[in-house]
Amino acid sequence: MKVGVFDSGLGGLTVVQAITKNFKGAQIFYIADTLFAPYGQKSKEQILKHSIDVTSFLIKKHDIDVLIVACNTATSAAIKYLRQEFPKLIVIGTEPGIKPAMQNSVSKRVGVLATPATLNGEKYQLLLNKLSNEHKVDVFEQACEGLVEQIEDGKISHKETFSMLSSWLKPMKNNSVDTIVLGCTHYPLVSDLIKEIMGAKIQLIETGSAIAKRLENLSLQNGHTNNGELSIEVFYTGEIKKDMINMILQDWKDGGKIVVRDINE
Ligand code: DGL
């Protein structure tokens, strides 16, 4: 089983981290499209173009069976097109976990942190409208412009990142939000800062494990036996902080080697 995964940067490795918990006997090819990061402040057309480019690379060079769009922003802009254009490919997307958050919240006040493109996208708006009719929950949205850049820069427990998050989270804190959707695959990397600001009891909803489960189910249906080694190759299109890769995948204890290389090599 060959699995292609992409994101604008290293944030999507939080999804790969969840995959490594149970998934075996596969090659994972990950693209961090850092030359064009962040995606979240780009137009739908630009995000679509980058998504097509990386998917085409994964198909042509690595003949992938499954594509995981480990990016909420690219899922919103491109998943429909990718499914139409590459019908033989199993395509799994990433969507903000608003439904579990609404079901989980006791205060009935939920926060959503995501990129501007995700929050303004039609996919999110439709999902929110549908769920708002089913659940009586107040939703506090916040577009976190600049947070992806801080994370890609390795400024994960930096005071600048803390102060950005403090100002974004203030309205949520003041309004007794008890559950926050991490609507960008980079944001689990700043979970500790969010907990520090909101208090340890805050529930953070991320989607990595749901995507891993979906991958397991779909691949079993397609004859995958889930035996043998798992290998990971990380390609980057621009700059990356290589240390972050081991940091994000550090729990992959019995894992094999992670190969990291420039996509143009
Ligand atoms: N990890 C991407 C997401 O889930 C970040 C998008 C960006 O580059 O702005 O939305």
The largest β sheet comes out as: 6 strands, parallel
The tally of beta strands, per DSSP, is 10
Overall 3D geometry? globular
CATH architecture of the largest domain: 3-Layer(aba) Sandwich
Low-confidence stretches: none
- Sketch the topology as an H/E string, one letter per element: EHEHEHEHEHHEHHEHEHEHE
CATH class group of the largest domain: Alpha Beta
Query: Distance N terminus to C terminus?
Result: 24 Å
For the largest sheet, list the strands in their spatial order.
Answer: 4-3-1-2-9-10
Named CATH topology of the largest domain = Rossmann fold
**Number of self-contained structural domains:** 2
Explain the overall architecture:
This protein folds into 2 domains: 2-94 and 208-262, Rossmann fold, CATH 3.40.50; 98-205, 3-Layer(aba) Sandwich (Rossmann fold). Helix content is 43%, strand content 19%. It contains 11 helices and 10 strands. It has helices spanning 13-19, 44-62, 72-85, 98-104, 116-120, 122-134, 147-152, 159-174, 191-198, 208-221, 243-248, and strands spanning 2-7, 26-32, 66-69, 90-92, 109-114, 138-143, 179-182, 203-205, 230-236, 258-262. The strands form 2 sheets. It has a 6-stranded parallel beta sheet, sandwiched between helices. A 4-stranded parallel beta sheet has the order 6-5-7-8, sandwiched between helices. Helix 9 (191-198) links the parallel strand 7 (179-182) and strand 8. The structure holds D-glutamic acid.
Keywords:
Rossmann fold, binds D-glutamic acid, 6-stranded parallel beta sheet, alpha/beta, 265 residues, 10 strands, 4-stranded parallel beta sheet
